[in-house]
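Help! Submission page says 'invalid entity' but I think these are all valid:
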Amino acid sequence: MATKSGRVISAEKPFRWKQALLKWEVFLVIIFIAVNIMNACISPYYMSVNGLFTATSSFLEKSFIVLPMAYVLLLGEIDISVGATVALSACMLGISFNAGMPMGAAVLICLLTGSLCGALNGLILTKFQELAPMIVTLGTQILFRGIAEILLTDQATGGFTKVAWFKNLYWGKVGPVPIMFLIFAVCAAVFGVIMHCTTFGRRMYAIGSNPLAAKYSGIHVQKIRFIIYTITGTFSAVTAIFLASGMGSARSNIASGYELEAISMAVLGGILTDGGKGNFPGAILAIFILGFLRYGLGLVNVASQLMMVIIGLLLIVVVMVPNLNLGRIFKKKETKA
Amino acid sequence: MKKKLLSAILCAAMLASVLAGCGGNGGSGSSTGGDANAPAADEGEANAGDDASSPSDAGDDAEASSDGKESSGGDASYAILVKSAGNPYNKKMIEGFQEVMDAQGATCVVKEPEEASAEAQIKMINELVAQGISSIAIAGNDADALQPALEEAMNQGIKVCCMDSAVNADSRQLFVNQAGIEIIGETLMEAVYDITGGEGQWAILSATSQATNQNAWIDAMKQVMEDEKYAGLELVEVAYGDDEYQKSVDQTQALLTNYPDLKVICAPTTVGIMAAAKVLQDESSSVKLTGLGLPSEMADYIGADDTHSCPYMYLWNPIDIGRLTAYVSLALVDGSITGASGETFTAGDLGEYTISEAADGGTEVVLGPPFAFTPDNIEEWKNVY
């Protein structure tokens, strides 16, 4: 590849073993395996197909937010209104269902509510581009939560368990595989393909790396931002549907803190908050690392305070590692040797 | 180049083995990892040392696993799942539950969610089901939202009861009620009657205006008050301090200003009664106080003379709730009760209990009348809870 002068002129990066091994995803795979080995060692109940699939139920419902959140972070932006969007969508689902609508229609209203919430974020952020996404979505977060509280005050809206198919969204299984897992797998595959194999995906990377350059190369930056914020809202509503299915009811105070969990999973997955960097499989791996770690520690009944400490440390350590610049450390050792 | 590669792999292997090895009984995994890489161990170890992450991680995980070992294994195991971690009242219930379980030689699993939410409790219920637990005793954060998860658990043959804060009738086999609503209403009304001397103005300082238990007790008191005996008493206001200390202080001061003839404030909430006690005592007010409060928080304010604002107050004993819940769990698992109305069982030194119909359509056992804390016994109780 390299010419005699030592310059590399090629769009394709040369494949190097070292780089491949130092890739973030490889690191995550190792952590994933380590977490599983550790869990299997500390709990005799951990390694069972049924148990592991059931375990996914406890974190997959909020993982639907991670999919679009990866896109948002890839753009170098952030959306912290997702938790409130979940709550508002779930409340709308409950209200329309208890107003006598069939469950199917209620689910559509829920999705519509989420999409509208996301579209509102997108609209504000594309019409007033000088505003910071953090501030705008902080505002809409309070707004959405407020509307949910007005709608339901402190009451719950429930009775969803009467509709069998709706309950099965969360609790149902095909063989040992939860239905939610199958739906998540399909969604994740679609999101991954869009991010890595389509022009839309390449454009997101371009915007994340340099929005101005992207704009001058003819990419409709604002259109793409609007679409992504709307999708984020839609998938918050998907989370709301599964959460409502899992609890059989909805309240205005559900899903608090989900935005931070989604962001931390995406960041652990190697999607930088600066934008333009990260791979989708990393985000999926991170979901399962955090989920299984929590499940494993939960199985041996680790106190939840200690669990928070462990997960907090893991996050810090994992995010610190790439900044330690492993390559340089290796080089030093080599010159010494 | 080769060396770099090797050290990268080694680094990864070290991290993996450290994580895996700290599983206690996973010790073999750790040692094989070390041996296999022995030739280049020096470099690998140096690298692992540079990466400050692995040791700290290892320490935490090791702690985690030792915690876990205590509670795994055994034939029947009994879980208690409270509202949230760091709640002293919940801690006392756990204490009572554990005490009985330890005495019976039974395995006891304690679960405290990091936040008081139904989502966190569902996750923990699923974990308990996966462990093959025998029974779950839960203080619900939401009456309805736990229904699917608890129904799922009961379908797996797990016995489910709740204590302190009930989940709905379909999600449980039995509710361990700290005290019947009527009996709390009667007891508090009797106290107000006694302290006022049978006539005069009195007020209630409650928590939030929507709190289910508060409103039930207040309604019960109002019902009792319809009796001829209480004709001389005038309830002037129900104030809401929202279970916030400062707001309760403000509400108490407002009551004192608005009703100069006020004789008694009754606060059936632990936060409210403490705030009111402080205000009354600081202002040397002649208004007296009673209600439901924690002895440890109220010890300074309980006394028979005029320098103390509260002659006596009530509360149930959270340790006894935990104990009774433990006996209920044991009885449900060994099959001596099924949670049907009319069944009886013996709860150790707490005595004999009969299961009765609950107001929500389910069944319950009632712990007993609230316990009175007087100037005579407060010294002994203030260190308990």
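Support: the input was valid. A stray whitespace character was the problem, and the output above is from the cleaned input. Chain B touches chain A through 70 residues (CB under 8 Å).
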